[in-house]
User: Which sequence fits this backbone?
């Protein structure tokens, strides 16, 4: 019965994790987080370290998409620490990659590069998913672009794009075309920017990535503004606002807040439970110490009493001996 229960629970954990992935692809980040939190609760109940590592990485990625970079870093760091502790390298590459992307957004390019390099080093030690390499080169491209190194960023994006096309990684294609469009816009090449962005948008629509589509609308508005076509710039800005509103509506934000508050309460209860256990353990130690102290005092008192008794007996013995000695002298 226990084996059947564990088997069902295990399938339920995978169900929630896969449901989270599905919601994330649909840019339903509140529902994705809710599913991932349910999945990791079960993983912890089953003491499945590998699934905890995987789900912490997924949670971190959702927070990254929500621009909650510190929360993303916290979860990704937990995933990495657990993977290192349990000697499970298979998920480390993704966690290092996503951690690097977070540091990119915080403009900490040194930490970003360190984590990207760790992902590449791991790929050199084991058979690595080419998708990871594509994402690492993309991450390097973002670092170099944001840091103003245009030529190096183009080289990194081209490497990433080449791998994406080879393995049919469409989301990666859309991302790389998007940043190549940003580069062309920075270089004042409006037509080049439109060409790259059109390719990015075509792929984003094909894979139904609402998140990518929304960001593309915003970049279209920037391009048309620079081109002096303010009507189209206004049109795409409106599309961007409407698209963002559909992703982050008041209902979605309210649900997201509810989920995060619920998770924070669970964490608080877990911390309180641990603290209560620590307090109980300390109280037990204190009780034992009091018992030992009382026992020590009683032993000292008994020893003192024994010494007094022995001293009294010794005095009594001397007194008796003295009287016997006097009696013997009288008889003589």
Assistant:
């Amino acid at each position: 019965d226990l084996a059947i229960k564990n088997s069902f629970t295990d399938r339920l954990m995978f169900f929630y994790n896969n449901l989270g992935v599905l919601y994330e692809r649909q840019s339903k980040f509140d529902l994705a987080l809710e599913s991932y939190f349910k999945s990791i609760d079960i993983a912890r109940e089953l003491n499945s370290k590998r699934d905890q590592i995987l789900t912490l990485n997924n949670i971190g990625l959702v927070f990254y998409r929500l621009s909650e970079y510190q929360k993303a870093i916290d979860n990704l760091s937990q995933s990495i620490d657990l993977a290192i502790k349990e000697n499970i390298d298979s998920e480390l590459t993704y966690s290092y990659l996503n951690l690097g992307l977070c540091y990119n957004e915080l403009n900490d390019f040194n930490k970003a590069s360190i984590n990207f390099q760790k992902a590449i080093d791991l790929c050199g030690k084991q058979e690595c998913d080419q998708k990871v390499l594509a994402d690492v080169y993309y991450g390097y491209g973002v670092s170099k672009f944001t840091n103003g190194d245009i030529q190096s960023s183009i080289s990194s994006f081209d490497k990433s794009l080449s791998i994406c096309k080879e393995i049919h990684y469409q989301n990666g294609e859309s991302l790389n075309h998007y940043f190549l469009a940003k580069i062309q816009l920075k270089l004042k090449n409006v037509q080049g920017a439109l060409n790259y962005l059109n390719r990015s948008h075509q792929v984003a629509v094909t894979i139904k990535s609402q998140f990518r589509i929304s960001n593309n609308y915003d970049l279209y508005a920037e391009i048309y503004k620079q081109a002096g076509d303010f009507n189209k710039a206004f049109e795409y800005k409106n599309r961007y606002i409407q698209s963002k509103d559909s992703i982050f509506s008041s209902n979605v934000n309210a649900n997201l807040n509810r989920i995060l508050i619920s998770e924070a309460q669970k964490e608080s209860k877990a911390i309180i439970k641990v603290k209560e256990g620590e307090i109980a353990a300390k109280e037990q130690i204190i009780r034992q110490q009091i018992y030992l102290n009382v026992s020590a005092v009683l032993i000292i008192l008994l020893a003192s009493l024994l010494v007094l008794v022995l001293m009294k007996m010794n005095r009594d013995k001397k007194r008796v001996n003295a009287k016997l000695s006097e009696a013997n002298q009288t008889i003589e």
